[in-house]
Design brief:
flat; about 90 residues; mainly alpha; 4 helices
Length: about 90
């Protein structure tokens, strides 16, 4: 699949841009997956899909962050950690 992603000319510019973008994404996926181990291909596919969905507005960044962290934020973790270490007496 080298060269033009579509043999026929598409007069509609948005459709043509979508075809080119799809072709580039697939080519990127194929070339990167060549150098990955099988166990890493699924993670790469997931990250690539999340980036595509984020750029299209179908995956809001706060929702993606919630998915990755499980609802925990760094501020909550730091607050709990500091509260625990400050209340613990120093030997």
């Amino acid at each position: 699949m080298i060269g033009r992603p579509c043999n026929k000319e598409v007069p509609d510019l948005p459709t043509r841009l979508t075809l080119i973008n799809d072709h580039f994404t697939y080519s990127l996926y194929q070339n990167v997956c060549r150098s990955l181990f099988e166990k890493d291909k699924l993670l790469f596919s997931f990250l690539l899909d999340c980036r595509i969905m984020t750029s299209e507005g179908r995956l809001p960044p706060p929702e993606f962050t919630f998915f990755l962290t499980g609802g925990w934020t760094w501020q909550i973790l730091c607050t709990k950690h500091h509260r625990h270490t400050l209340s613990t007496p120093i030997p």
